[in-house]
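Hi Y.,

Following your request, here is the sequence exactly as I used it, all 327 residues.
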Amino acid sequence: MDKRKFMLKVGVMGAGHLGKIHLRLLDTSKKYELIGFYDSDVENASTIAKEFGYTFYDDMEKLIDAVDVIDIVTPTLSHFDCAKRAMEKGRHVFIEKPITTTYEEATQLLELERKYDVKGQVGHVERFNPAFSAVKHQIHQPMFIEAHRLAEFNPRGTDVPVVLDLMIHDIDAILSVVDSEVKQINASGVSVISNSPDIANARIEFENGCVANLTASRISLKNMRKSRFFQKDAYISVDFLEKKVEVVKMKDAPEKEGDFDMILQNAEGVKKQIYFENPEVHVNNAILDELETFADAIEKNTIPVVTLTQGTLALKVALEVIEAFKN
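Below is the corresponding structure, written out as tokens. Let me know if you'd prefer a different format.
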């Protein structure tokens, strides 16, 4: 029996840098059958088709008709149009982040998702970063979060502010662990090379008192992607770039202290013991994981890991950060 009959037929829209990665991974996936791809740049598409053997569709509608799932890896400006066309034909959609360019477009996609009873997932790939996955279950009611996402300059992505290009990764990750509404946002951004801000800092205050301080830059001399979470009796550090984690916890000191116990005593005389945990980080391909968990959600009729609703909320907060630049 041909196992391919049970694979979801998928088509990719957009064959740029990231699109080519998606094409390669989907072609090797055991959960998808790669039918082909569409790209508005016919010359680039023809080169890719010839080099890798993928089927090039010069008509977006024909590709949509031929598949079960559309993977949208086009520039952000076209996300809405591509997703709308696919959803109106009953196709499930995976959309690279950010979900769309405007909050209004994103909410329209939410309506289409309900109307046509399809599933959607947004490509917030850091949710699948093995370092974050290793400790996310230990992050409980953090009250202070600090995130730094710094990148060397790359012209690709400068069509949007650094908040939508880089910071939105951390916004989504933070929203996934802070169970509270956003109360207030203060931010500043500076355009150095691009027409839109290249470096930005945002302070996001939540209703429960949690504060997140985020910095993003695409004009740094080195790459860095680190987040630190501070909560009662624990400090958790996640290095998204190096795939490393650090967990430092405190508990009441034992009555009889050991020679190697690390003990702290506060001004009130309360003693706490410090101990370290080293959660195992399982190396993975985060992009393949996000694509294949979406296939699982479709097959099993479960909720995707990063829903369109969550992608919309991350976009809403990101746009509010950009708006706060003006204040």
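The chain has a mean pLDDT of 92.

Thanks again,
Q.
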